[in-house]
Known about the structure:
Layout: E1 6-12, E2 18-22, H1 27-36, E3 43-47, H2 53-64, E4 68-72, E5 75-79, H3 90-93, H4 97-100, H5 103-110, E6 112-116, H6 129-137, E7 141-145, E8 148-152, E9 164-166, H7 172-183, E10 188-192, H8 198-209, E11 213-215, E12 221-225, E13 234-236, H9 241-253, E14 257-261, H10 269-278, E15 281-286, E16 289-293, E17 303-305, H11 316-324, E18 329-334, H12 343-349, E19 353-357, E20 360-364, E21 373-375, H13 379-391, E22 395-399, H14 401-407, H15 411-417, E23 421-427, E24 433-436
Parallel strand pairs: 2-14, 3-13, 9-10, 17-18, 21-22
Antiparallel strand pairs: 1-22, 1-23, 3-5, 4-5, 6-8, 7-8, 10-12, 11-12, 14-16, 15-16, 18-20, 19-20, 23-24
Amino acid sequence: xxxxxxxxxxxxxxxxxxxxxxxxxxxxxxxxxxxxxxxxxxxxxxxxxxxxxxxxxxxxxxxxxxxxxxxxxxxxxxxxxxxxxxxxxxxxxxxxxxxxxxxxxxxxxxxxxxxxxxxxxxxxxxxxxxxxxxxxxxxxxxxxxxxxxxxxxxxxxxxxxxxxxxxxxxxxxxxxxxxxxxxxxxxxxxxxxxxxxxxxxxxxxxxxxxxxxxxxxxxxxxxxxxxxxxxxxxxxxxxxxxxxxxxxxxxxxxxxxxxxxxxxxxxxxxxxxxxxxxxxxxxxxxxxxxxxxxxxxxxxxxxxxxxxxxxxxxxxxxxxxxxxxxxxxxxxxxxxxxxxxxxxxxxxxxxxxxxxxxxxxxxxxxxxxxxxxxxxxxxxxxxxxxxxxxxxxxxxxxxxxxxxxxxxxxxxxxxxxxxxxxxxxxxxxxxxxxxxxxxxxxxx
Length: 444
Ligand code: UD1
């Protein structure tokens, strides 16, 4: 693609959708469990890995550490026998926050890790002091210089030591980093005020599958008893609850009935409760199959993002698109990230009536949105704009697709399979189409 060209998505809105969509493996689980593969003495196989640019980057980072990777569809084999490098490449880690979490397994296996700070991103500053303080409590020496975290363990065994760690905030990443580090530490680690997200539990289950001794994952107190070595396993990642919630909203916003499979309903309780307050019905056709049924009514409600099991920040933007066309007023309060309301400006381009005051967005529902040219400002914002485009009158063009491709596996193809009129094209600086992508998955 030449520098003056860019890929965009066109959406022609107000089409009814119908049918069933397959939900991919969870991005946030996959990335951290991939980092967790470094804990295995000889390797492991991971299944149900979503096809995402972030997953490709994580593979490159892990390969750079000396691990051999073989990909076969949605499965990845990791041969960790050659893992000997403690410095993941700066360029890649600085662009992928989850890659920083590899500091836990690298330090646990090699006794030393030099990992670049992930840096801020469009949704907030995203510091890592909770990860660092926890590793220090486990006996690591940590120096941060020139944007690089240099951590090492002294002593002949180079093993971290079990510790009691209280997290000031139930950070998902810090809980994951410290849980991985503790699996090979000497003695018992207790993480208090730990994150309870399903992805934390998935990582714990993976660690248990490779021989770790972990109890309490999914509660705010996780206990890890360190072992000397971790073995092989064949492990499948949980379905992506954020992707499933995106399709639930797609059904509600287009007044369409959509089924999704596989899902873990317990992971979607906050999203389902809000959808039902807004007006859609959600039914279970099987323990792992969910269907959204519109009722023709959409009315405003208030949403506050908080750590799990409360309403997730990763679903806030998509629900904002829905509330933008729901009757009455809604207040959305974002408490997890300090800068995660940038999609408001884009939704306003489509006719939404939203005001921002601090971390609150006050949404006054409008009868309908109208298609416009909009730009994705972050990953979940990109999904919100697709949803708004599906509901809007006329054509919406979305730019900034690198955000979407980071975290949604074949979103356009999946939407198309439900009947959406959506296509990805490459345009030149004049806005003329120079290439039309086919049904196959194409990454920009
Ligand atoms: C993970 C998810 C992300 C999700 C978020 C919250 C991955 C790869 N990403 O991100 O999609 O939106 O959980 O559910 O799993 N914080 C600190 N100091 C720290 C760590 C975090 O102040 O050391 C703050 C962050 O800046 C943020 C809040 O805590 O404001 C939540 O962050 P955290 O739970 O750590 O999110 P991530 O693990 O980065």
